Amino acid sequence: MQFITPLWPAYPELFLLVMTCIILVADLFISDDNRIFTYGLTQFTLVGCAVLTFFTGNAEPVYTFSGMFVDDLMADALKLLTCLAVITILVYARAYTAVRGMFRGEFFSLALFATLGMMVMISANHLLTLYLGLELLSLSLYAMVALQRDSVQATEAAMKYFVLGALASGMLLYGMSMLYGATGTLEITALAQLSSQGVRAQAVLVFGLVFIVAGLGFKLGAVPFHMWVPDVYQGAPTAVTLFIGSAPKFAAFAIVMRLLAQGLGADALVDEWRQMLLIMAVLSLAIGNLAAIMQTNLKRMLAYSTISHMGFLLLGVLSGTIDGYGAAMFYVVVYVLMTLGAFGIILLLTRGGFEAENLDDYKGLNQRSPWYAFLMLLLMFSMAGIPPTVGFYAKLTVLQAVVQIGWWWVAVIAVVFSLIGAFYYLRIVKLMYFDAPQDTAPVTASADVRALLSVNGLAVLVMGIAPQPLMMLCIEAVRASI
Amino acid sequence: MMQQLPLLNLAIWVPIIAGVAVLFTGSDRNAQAARVIALIGAVLGFLVTIPLYTGFDLQQGSFQFVHRAPWIESFNVWYHLGIDGISLLLILLNSLTTVLVVIAGWQVIQTRVAQYMAAFLILSGLMNGVFSALDAMLFYVFFESTLIPMFIIIGVWGGPNRVYAATKFFLYTLLGSLLSLVALIYLYNATGGSFAFLDLYEVPLPLIVQVIVFIAFFMAFAVKVPMWPVHTWLPDAHVEAPTGGSVVLAAVMLKLGGYGFLRLSLPIVPDASIYLAPAVIALSLIAVVYIGLVALVQTDMKKLIAYSSISHMGFVTLGIFIFNAQGVEGAVIQMISHGFISGAMFLCVGVLYDRMHTRQIADYGGVANRMPVFAAFFMLFAMANAGLPGTSGFVGEFLVILGAMKVNFWYAFAAAITLIFGAAYTLWMYKRVMFGAVANDHVAELKDINARECLVLGVLAVMVLVMGIWPQPFAEVLHVSVNELLAHVSLSKLPVQ
Fold first, then answer.
1. Is the peptide bond before A230 cis (omega within 30 degrees of 0)?
2. Mean pLDDT across chain B, nearest whole number?
3. I want to staple B157 with a disulfide (CB 3.0 to 4.6 A). Which of A158, B242, B309, B395 is the partner?
4. Nearest chain A alpha carbon to B139
5. Is the pLDDT of residue A83 over 60?
6. Is residue B366 scored above 90 in pLDDT?
7. Considering only residues 209 to 248 of chain B, which have any Cβ-Cβ distance to chain A shorter than 8 Å?
8. Which one of A83-87, B2-6, B186-190 scores highest in mean pLDDT?
9. Cβ B167–A467 below 8 Å, yes or no?
C-alpha cells in the first residue's frame, strides 16, 4: 500500500459530495419561483461528475484509500452510465414533480446523495465501503418515496420499503460478518485470495455466503425476496419509481459482481452460489412473468416485469464465466435504458393531477400521438426481446452464456417464460394501436423531454441494429476488472 | 457489371427505407402522397430484384451475389448475404407481391394509410432479408422481425376479432422461433463459435443431438408453414387480417417455414431429418387429406382458402421430406405457385368483400351475372387452386406426387386424393358464389372490377398461366441448388466412432 493516498480516482465522488453540500445550502436561499436554478445546478453537477468519471477513467484497476476504493474499467463504465441515467431521470421528472409540489431542494439533494451512494457502491473494494454506499443509497430512496407526505399510498410504500430494505441490509451485514469471521479480512481483493486458497472454516464461509446472496436478492428484487417491488413501484410517485427502477440496478449489479464474482469467485464457491442464483433466477422468471399478466396497473406490471428481468440478469451471473458477467452487464444496461424510456412515456402522459398508470390510459395512443406510440412500441418489443430491438441481444447474450456452460435446459425454461412475458408487452401495443382512444387530449411535452425521449426510444432500435459497441464495452469492462 | 451492384442489399433496404419515408408523410391528410411513395418504393424494390434473376448463374452450386461484412464481432456474427435458386424465386415472389398489395390497398384502406403502406414495405424488406441471410443469427433476426409488422397489420386493419387473431399469430410463431433460438445457440457453441450456415452445415453432431435440434427447428418452421396440428392460428389470422395482410401472409410469409426447412433443418441435421422424415410425411399427408376435408365444410370464403392453403402447404413439406430431386423441386415450385394462387384467391375474396362486406358463401349467388370479368379471373384462379393442368397449381403438385411415387406408392396415392378434394371444395365454393340466379338485391347492385383491380388480378393470372404452361424458367434456376442441397442431406453428419 502506498503511504500517500492518491485522491484522483475518487474525484467524481468528491466533486459530487462537495456540490451536493453546496446545493443543499444554496437551495435554502432560493425562492420557489427560482427553483429551476437548483435544477440547473443539479444537472450541472451530474454532467460534471460524468465528465470527471470519463477523464479519470483507466484500463488498469487503481486502488486507493488503503485498498478500500477501486477504480477500474467496470466502475468507470457503470458510474458514467449511472450519471447519465440520473440526468435523464431528472429531465423526465421535472414536469411531474413541479405539478406535485416535489420540485424542491430536498428532491434534488436526495437524488444526488443517492447517486453518490451508487457510485461508492460501484467502486467499493471493501465490505464496509460497500455497505456505506448501499445505506446512503437506500436511505435516500426511502425518503424520496415518502416525499409526498400527504399521499397515503406513498407513505405505506415508503414504510414497506424501509422495513424490508433494513432487513435486507441486516442480512447482508450478517453475511459480511461471517465472511470476516472465516477469512479475517474485509477487503474484497484479499477475500478473493483467501477464499480461493480454501479456509479452515469453510462452513462459516458458505453460511455467510447464503446471507450475502439473500441480501443481494432483496436489493435486486429477485424472487423469493421480491415482495417489496410491486408495492413500492405502485405506491411511490412515478418520478421516484423511475428512479428506483433504473439507476440503482447498476449499483446492485456492481455489488453482485464485487461480492460474488470477485470476492467469492473461487471455483468451489461459485458452485455454491450458482445453485442459489439458479433457483432465484428461475423463480423470478416464473413469478415475474406470470404475475405481470394479471396486472391492470402499468407501474405494477412493470414491477413484475423488472422481477423477470432480474431473473435474466441472474442467469448471466450464474454462468460464472467472463462472457456471462459481460452478458449480465449488457443486460442491466439495456434494462435501464428500456425502463427509463417506458417510465418516461408514463410521465409524459401524466399531466396535471392525472396519473396515467392504468393500462386503459394507453388506449389509442397511436391516434393521439403516433410518434410516442411508436417509441413505446419499440420499448415494449425490446422488453419482450423481439429483434431488431436491443432487448433481443440482451437475452441472446445471456442465453449464450448459459448454454455455453451446458445448461441448455435452463435456456429453454428462460425462453418459455419470456414467451409468456411477451403476452403482456403485446397487450400494451394492442392498447396503443388497436383500440380507440378514451381520452383525446393532445400529448404535449417540453422540448428537452421530447428530444431525450426520442433519443431514448430510438436508441433501443439503433443499438438493436448495431449492438456491437455496447456489447464490446461490457465484455471488456468485465474482463479488465474481474 | 450487375454483379458489382450490392443487389441483395438493395432488395432488402430499398423497401425498408421507402417504408420509413412513407411513415414520414404522417397523418391521413397526406394519404395520397403516402400511396405514391409506397408504390414507387415497391416498384423500385421489385426492379432491383430482376437483375438477380437475369444475372443468376445457372451452373453455380454455391451461393451467389454474396456480400459479407462484420456485424457483431463479439459473437462472430456476420452480415452475410447470398442466394441460391430457391431463395431467388422466393425473393422475386415477395417483391412482386408487395407491388400488388400496395396497388390492391390503394382505395380500400382509408385510415392510417401511411402506416399501412409502411408496414407492408418494411415487411417485404425483412422477408427478403430472411431469404438472403447466410448467417443463422442474421436469419433469425429477420425471421422474427417480420412478426412486428404483421402483428400491426392484422391488429389495426383487421376484422372484429382482430386482437385475438393478432395475438395468437404472434405468440404461436414466437414460441417456435424461441426454441429454435436455443438450438442455434447450442450449434454456435458446437461449431466453436460461428453462426455461418456454411459452418453449421459442416459440424458433426450425434443423432440424439440432431433429433433435439431438429425438433426445435421443426417447432419454428412447422408453425410457420403451418403443418397440422399447429395450424390453428392460420384460419384465425387469415379471416381477421385485411385483404393485403392475407395475401402477404399466404403468398410469402408461410414460405418462410418451407424455406427454413430447406435452409436450416435439412442441411444442418440431415440424419435427424431422414430419421424423422416418416413422421413429418405423416403430418403432411394428414394436412393434405384431413384439412382438405375441413375446407369442404367451411361457410366463410376466407376460411376456406385458409384451409386450402394449409392443405397445399402440406404438399410442400411432403415434397421436402421425400428427399429426391422431383420432390424438392416440386415443393419449391409449389411454394411459388401457391404464392400466386392463394394471393389471387384472397384478392378475389377481397374484391367481393369490399363491395358486400361479407365473406359468407351463403350471402352470395349469381355474382357472375353482374361481374363477368371478375368471374373469368376468379374461375382461372379457382381452377389453378384445384390443380388443373396448364396452370401453375398442377406443376408443383404433379412433381411432388411423382417424387412421392418413387419412394412409396401410398404416399403418392394419399397425396393424389387431394386433387379431388381440392377440386371439390374450390369449385363448389365457386359454384355457390358465382353461378345460379342473382341471390339478393345486394348482389344485383354489384359493379364489375375496375382497372386497378383488373391490373392486379391480370398480373397474377399471367404468372399462373406462364408457370403452368412453361415452367422451365422457374425450374431451371432450381436444378443445381436442389442437387447441391440433396448432396448435403445424403452426407451423414454423425461423428465417426
1. no
2. 88
3. B242
4. A387
5. yes
6. no
7. none
8. A83-87
9. no
Distance CA B181, CA A385 (A): 12
Provide, as residue numbers in chain B, all residues whose Cβ is less than 8 Å from the Cβ of A370. 26-27, 115
Interface membership of B72 toward A (CB under 8 Å): yes
CA B256, B261, B262 angle in degrees (round to 5)?
Answer: 95
B155: nearest CB among A387, A433, A468 = A433
**C-alpha distances in angstroms, A184 versus A127, A179, A194, A203, A258?**
12, 8, 9, 15, 18
The alpha carbon of residue B374 is apart from the nearest alpha carbon of chain A, in Å, by 33
Contacts of A413 (CB under 8 A, 6+ apart): A282, A285
- Name the residue facing A386 among B26, B112, B147 (closest C-beta): B147
CB environment A243-252: b (16+ within 10 A), e (fewer): bbbbbbbbbb
B253-265: pLDDT as tens digits: 999 999 999 999 8
Task: Compute the Cα dihedral for A160, A166, A172, A174 and give only its sign.
Answer: negative
Gap from B177 CA to chain A (nearest CA, Å) = 10
The reply to whether B71 touches chain A by the CB within 8 Å rule is yes
Pairing of strands B77-83, B64-72: antiparallel
Q: What is the pLDDT of residue B125?
A: 93
Query: What pLDDT is recorded for position A352?
Result: 66
d(CA B201, CA B270): 9
Residue B178 and residue A387: Cβ atoms within 8 Å?
Answer: no
CA distance between the termini of chain B: 49
Which residues on B lie below 8 Å from A388 (Cβ)? 141, 145
Q: Which of A408, A411, A468 sits opposite B74 (nearest CB)?
A: A468
pLDDT tens column, B23-34: 888 777 888 888
- The whole-number pLDDT of residue B2 equals 46
For A433, name the nearest residue in chain B, comparing CA atoms only.
B156
| Rounded-to-integer distance, Cα B486 and Cα B204, Å | 17
Answer yes or no: do B151 and A403 touch at CB < 8 A: no
Buried b (16+ CB within 10 A) or exposed e, A194-231: bbeeebeeeebbbbbbbbbbbbbbbbbbbbebbebbbb
pLDDT at A138: 93
Chain A residue with minimal CA distance to B147?
A386
B377 to each of A86, A142, B269, B354, B366, how far by Cα in Å?
64, 72, 43, 17, 15
Residue A1's pLDDT band (cuts 50, 70, 90): very low
A325: confidence class by pLDDT, cuts 50, 70, 90: very high
- B185 → closest Cβ in A400, A471, A472: A400
When pLDDT is averaged across residues B374-398 and rounded to a whole number, the result is 89
CB of A47 less than 8 A from some CB of B: no
Average pLDDT over residues A102-115: 90
- Give the pLDDT score at B415: 85
Distance from CA of B42 to the nearest CA of A (A): 22
Note whether A403 contacts B: Cβ–Cβ < 8 A. Answer: yes
Nearest to A388 among B73, B141, B163 (CB): B141
Statement: residue A354 has pLDDT above 80: no
pLDDT-based confidence at residue A250 (cuts at 50, 70, 90): very high
Q: CA–CA separation, A120 vs A114, rounded Å?
A: 10
| pLDDT for res B160 | 84
Q: Does the pLDDT value for residue A199 go beyond 80? A: no
- Is residue B4 predicted with pLDDT exceeding 80? no
- In chain A, where the domains are located: 8-481
User: Which residues in A100-115 are b (16+ Cβ under 10 Å) and which e?
Assistant: bebbbbebbbbbbbbb
C-alpha cell at B305: 382458402
C-beta atoms of A392 and B144 within 8 A: yes
Mean pLDDT of B380-395: 89
Name every chain B residue with its beta carbon within 8 A of the beta carbon of A366. 112, 115, 156
